[in-house]
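[READ THE FOLD]
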Amino acid sequence: MKSLLAVALLILASCSEPKQPLAEIPTYQTLHRENLKGSFFHFDHRGKLYIACSIHQGGNSPNTKLIRNGSSDFALIKKTIHQQADLRVVTFTSETIGSEQALPYRPHPSVEIGDPVVILNRGQKIHAKIAQLPNKKNHCHMIKSTQHVSAGGMSGSPIFSPLSGTVIGVLQTANSKTAANLFGFELLIMP
């Protein structure tokens, strides 16, 4: 009986195909404060541009200047319009950062264990998979990468889903500052 059940499970598992990416993963240069750690990114929600970041990294008060790595592009934070457990969305002004570089966002993002995601930071594309959903002890979705990367200053980076072709969350944690491969992110739920 056990062997019959095992064969049935094997057949069922072989019939289900992995989800296929729907979108190309963009190269995105995150925004940063001069001489301070932490990342910010801008995104388009219903035709309006916003900046998202993690709250714990600080430096997201009005008139904070953010610069894009390797360019003269900059933005000034204006006011908070949305906040979650460790995630803040703010309005901003900029003459150089606009909709052409904004990451797309769609309301009501969802993910399942095994779904592919990509951390976008300073032009890097760090591929990972959803390993654990939030629970009572941890509000973050946990993702695991086969890459080991230096994670210092990555809090606030966008989490991109190639399945939906949109940004879905904000990076919050990593298991190491120097060789991280396990990360936590908060799902971005805009009103």
About this structure: The chain has two domains: 31-93, 103-187.
